[in-house]
Amino acid sequence: MLENLNVLAEIKQLNHRSQMDNNFTQLSLIYGLNGDGKSTLSKIFQLISEKDIPSINSMKSLESDKLKTPNFVLRFSASKTITPNNINSLDHNFLVFNQHFIDSNVHSSSKIESSNLQNYYNLCLGSFSVEKQKKIDDLKLENNILATEKTEFETKLTQRFQGLTVSEITKLKPIKDADSRIAELESKLDDVKAIDVIKKLTKPSKLSVSFPELNFDYLDVSVEKISRDATEEIKKHFSNNHKKENKKWVKDGVALVTENQTCPFCAQDLNESPIYTHYKHFLDETYQVAVNAFTTSNTITTTDLDNIYTALLSVKTDVDTANQCIESWKGRVSLNSLTLELAYLSDLETYIKNLKEETERMESDIFIETDLSETCESIIKILFDAESDIRTLNKSIQSCLDDIQSYISTLESTTEADININITTLKNAIESSKADVKLWIKDRKDRGSRVTLNNKAVKTLREEIENDQKGKISTLSKDINEILQKFGSHVRLIDLEKDYKAKKGNDRFKFGVKFIENELSTSNAVESAKVIGDLLSTGDKNALALAFFFARVRSGVNANSIIVFDDPMSSLDRHRRHQTKALITKIARNNQVLVMSHDPFFLKELYDYQNNNAISSYFRFESSTQISGTSHYRKSSLISIANLNEETIDPYEQCYKSLLDYCHAPSDDSTIKLDAIRRIRTILEAKIYMSDPNTFLPNEYLGTLIGKVRERKDDLQDIFYIDNDTFEDIEDLNEYTGEYHHADGVKTVSNPIDMTELRTNVQKTLECVTRM
Question: What is the pTM of this model?
Answer without folding.
Answer: 0.53
